[in-house]
UniProtKB/TrEMBL annotation:
Biological process according to GO: xenobiotic detoxification by transmembrane export across the plasma membrane
Pfam families in alphabetical order: MatE (PF01554)
Topology of the protein relative to the lipid bilayer: Multi-pass membrane protein
The name this protein goes by in its record: Protein DETOXIFICATION
A single GO cellular-component term on record: membrane
Localization, UniProt: Membrane
Length: 471
């Protein structure tokens, strides 16, 4: 099948009530509307194009990677300090973070990737007034979703027990979950504003804010957890303060007038076509959240193994190492989605291309290295998918790779072949490998001129502009 024919149903959902052209008409009308792909002749042209695009990519990816690294270090700092309190406390925070909080965060982050597609393409097309409206829609939807997921935090203890976690871990994680409720609403505010700024390449602002938040968090963690000895209550308080600092600072930066025409204030247009935006956000959530959900399932399964506390602690360390080493990949993910969506929007398709714990961590290190490699490749490929607007087909690919291959094979190796935690990680590696290969193939066979046309039609239909030129 053609690489971009799969995506038309996604585009059709954006404004199906307005009536989008059928596929036959679109194929006959797009050829002259966008810049054709300029061929690369010889090594010299290839090197020139690679250098030009790499420079643009890293101008974005560098600050974004630093932002993600700083934000990731907020949680990592907390885990390091909690690890000195006790294994039960470390396991409890790890389970709350990877099962309860990460599930909620992954849904919010995934739903926000619709904002990357729409805002990125609108910015590329110089339709700046659309960006603020889209951000407000995302803010509204994500806050409603955060409210809807409160029950996960309120009933975390019985949920974790039902999922097979030990009573001691479930009880401590349940208490910590209640204290972490404010963090979820900070995420709902922080993520859309960050995407809004990223799609305009205003990445230095969010990196400075993230660095300031990390510095504040390190000081508060030292003061409340180490000096005053507040334990898990102190950990929860410092985390909530750090995330709300980021959320408020980014919003203030936007409404202070630093974004020009992209922000013209709050508008009632936010409530128009919300259902259409929500449908795309849901598809985005499934696409982006698949890997995070797999980590959640992995943690739950590890909690059912023998010596659960040690296994969970070891896996938590490996997951955090994987997360820290994936920050460059996440930066490239965001930068790639910005570059691809901007170029398609501007009709340039050619540019869019403990000692027990320590021992177990050492045994997992080779698998961790391979996961780091494939995770960073995967993030870049997902950035292309988000920039183009392939959320629906890629969501299906991710679900198939992780939940039809990764989990069953991991369970088989862990329990049937007695490989324990290593078997579960082997399963994750298989899912990552297959997903990366399929995404790479899909990108290679895509018709980028046609994708640029679809981006143009998407922006026209979203604004309600007809072929006759009315509004």
């Amino acid at each position: 099948m053609a690489g971009c024919e799969v995506e038309e149903p996604l585009l059709s959902t954006i404004c199906d009530q307005d009536g989008i052209k059928n596929e036959e008409n679109s194929q006959t009308s797009f050829s002259g509307d966008v810049d054709e792909i300029v061929p690369v002749n010889g090594i010299k042209d290839l090197v020139r194009e690679f250098y030009t695009e790499s420079k643009k990519q890293w101008v974005l990816a560098g600050p974004i990677s630093f932002t993600y690294f700083s934000q990731y270090c907020i949680m990592a700092t907390t885990l390091v300090v909690v690890g000195h309190i006790g294994t039960i406390q470390l396991a409890a925070v790890s389970v709350e973070n990877t099962v309860i909080a990460d599930f909620s965060y992954s849904v919010l982050l995934g739903m926000s990737s619709a904002l990357e597609t729409f805002c990125g393409q609108a910015f590329g097309a110089n339709q700046l007034d659309m960006l603020g409206i889209q951000m407000q829609r995302s803010l509204l939807i994500l806050n409603i979703m955060a409210l809807a997921m409160l029950s996960l935090f309120i009933f975390a203890t019985p949920i974790l027990k039902l999922l097979g976690q030990t009573a001691s871990i479930s009880t401590e994680a349940g208490k910590f979950s209640l204290w972490m409720i404010p963090q979820q609403f900070a995420y709902a505010m922080m993520i859309p504003t960050a995407k809004f700024l990223q799609t305009q390449s205003r990445v230095m602002a969010i990196s400075v804010i993230a660095a300031a938040a990390l510095g504040l968090h390190v000081f508060l963690t030292w003061f409340f957890m180490l000096k005053l000895g507040w334990g898990l209550a102190g950990a929860a308080m410092t985390l909530n303060v750090a995330w709300w600092f980021i959320a408020i600072a980014q919003l203030l930066y936007i409404i202070a007038g630093n974004c020009g025409e992209a922000w013209s204030g709050f508008s009632w247009k936010t409530f128009e076509k919300l259902w259409v935006f929500l449908k795309i956000s849901i598809a985005s959530a499934v696409m982006i959240s698949s890997e995070m959900w797999y980590i959640t399932v992995l943690t739950l399964m590890i909690g059912n193994l023998e010596n659960a506390e040690v296994s969970v602690d070891a896996s938590s360390i490996c997951v955090n190492i994987l997360g820290l080493t994936s920050m460059v990949g996440l930066g490239n993910n965001a930068a790639t989605s910005v570059r691809v969506s901007n170029e398609l929007g501007s009709e340039h398709p050619g540019r869019a291309k403990c000692s027990e714990v320590k021992l177990l961590v050492e045994e997992l290190t080779p698998l961790l290295g391979l996961c780091i490699l494939f995770t960073n490749v995967q993030y870049t490929l997902l950035g292309v998918a988000v920039g183009v607007g392939w959320q629906v087909p890629v969501a299906c690919i991710n679900i198939a790779c992780y939940f039809l291959l990764g989990i069953p094979s991991g369970v088989l190796m862990a329990y049937k072949f007695k490989m324990d935690i290593k078997g579960l990680w082997y399963g994750m590696l298989l899912g990552l490998c297959l997903q990366s290969c399929i995404l790479l193939w899909k990108i290679c066979v895509a018709d980028w001129n046609k994708e640029a046309y679809f981006a143009k039609e998407r922006l026209k239909e979203w604004r309600g502009i007809t072929d006759a030129g009315g509004t």
